[in-house]
Amino acid sequence: MAFRKLDDLGDVTGKVALVRVDFNLPMQDGAVTEDTRVRAVAPTILELADKGAKVLLLAHFGRPKGNRVPDQSLSMVIGAVEKVLGREVMFVPEIAGDIVAQAVGILQPGGIACLENTRFWAGEEKNDPELAKAIAANGDFYVNDAFSAAHRAHASTEGLAHLLPAYAGRSMQAELEALGKALDAPEKPVAAVVGGAKVSSKLDVLKHLVTKVDHLIIGGGMANTFLAANGVDVGKSLCEHDLTPTALEILEAADKSGCTVHLPYEVVVSKTFEANPPSLRTCNVHEVAADEMILDVGPSAVEALADALKTCKTLVWNGPMGAFETTPFDAATVALARIAAALTKEGSLVSVAGGGDTVAALHHAGVAADFSYISTAGGAFLEWMEGRELPGVKALEI
């Protein structure tokens, strides 16, 4: 898709940039505990400020549902934002109207202000055109740098983009370009790794991917549902037996599309789910006892998956291969992640990963920095994997 970037901006000295960012940050005891999302948008904010724009930041925080909730005020994150930017950031307790206009008047070119939590106004989540107009009245142009909120058609993510000249920020640009390379116009063959506990949470992802990729690697608890659909007795493993007909439909669709689905033929099982359980063993998938549960993919099966990855040029990854939070059921995820990272480093694979568990798993494996691109977007990343149009992205198209 074609969209306007910051490179397309002319002289912005003294102009007001309304910049949508994601400051939905984890907090504990009133303090920000993790600032990745601030660091992601810092290049856009600083670039605009350094070019002389007056930068007004728009973001949501939590789910206040149209009410002013004091502990969900964006005033709580100003200190963390200032620390990352190395600049003073003015806090404005409104998102539109005279108070914002006064703040714009006070700001010098290159100044930065953060407006209040957009979700304190009920019109935000309703994409109220009147609220969008009121916000737009204080801006000259709009920049969306919050891909993580792009799946929501809200006043500050979609509405504003139709009222002012709209541009993708640097983080949004990187995300769209990386995702475009991964699924929209990928170098083939393409592999997708989809893991996690439940098929039900990723049905639409799986249905879409089998029409787009050459290899679909299914792991985690959801693999058990596919194994059961194929007649495998999975013992007391996590399994959505009611979805086995749907799993069969997905396998049939994959077959018709020429997509090879990889399910584990060797698994790591235990009678109890705990760290390093005494009943731990590795076995063929047809040898799982009635009182055992599948908790990871076995090493031989991982080697076979590695061989499949070595034939591919592009990889999209969402979800762990096993119960990776508990040792030793992280082994398959770590091993496969390291193989993907090595292939990426040698230049033979473009690797894109996304989703909270996935990012945590790649950090755990020590290879997050070696993937071509890691999306922290969560819901928006999943909806992109489902092939859905994202309103916040669509609104930036030219």
Task: For the largest sheet, list the strands in their spatial order.
Answer: 5-6-4-1-7-8
CATH class of the largest domain: Alpha Beta
* Secondary structure tally, helices: 15
CATH architecture of the largest domain: 3-Layer(aba) Sandwich
Could you name the ranges where pLDDT drops below 50 across 5 or more consecutive residues?
none
Radius of gyration: 23 Å
What does this 3D model show about the protein?
The chain has 398 residues and is α/β, with parallel strands linked by helices. The protein folds into two domains: 6-171, Rossmann fold (3-Layer(aba) Sandwich), CATH 3.40.50; 186-385, Phosphoglycerate kinase, N-terminal domain (Rossmann fold), CATH 3.40.50.1260. The chain contains 15 helices and 17 strands. The chain has helices spanning 36-50, 78-85, 98-106, 122-125, 129-136, 155-159, 170-184, 203-209, 220-229, 244-257, 299-310, 331-345, 356-365, 379-385, 391-394; strands spanning 16-20, 27-28, 31-32, 54-58, 90-92, 112-115, 141-144, 166-168, 190-194, 215-218, 260-262, 266-270, 281-284, 293-297, 314-318, 350-354, 373-375. Strands 5-6-4-1-7-8 form a six-stranded parallel β-sheet, with helices on both faces. A six-stranded parallel β-sheet has the order 11-10-9-15-16-17, with helices on both faces. Helix 3 links the parallel strand 5 and strand 6. The longest helix is centred in the N-terminal third of the chain and has 15 residues, at 36-50. The radius of gyration is 23 Å and the shape is elongated. The termini are close together. The model has no long low-confidence stretch (mean pLDDT 95). InterPro entries: Phosphoglycerate_kinase (IPR001576), Phosphoglycerate_kinase_N (IPR015824), Phosphoglycerate_kinase_sf (IPR036043). It holds the Pfam family PGK. Its EC number is 2.7.2.3. Pathway: Carbohydrate degradation; glycolysis; pyruvate from D-glyceraldehyde 3-phosphate: step 2/5. It is found in: Cytoplasm.
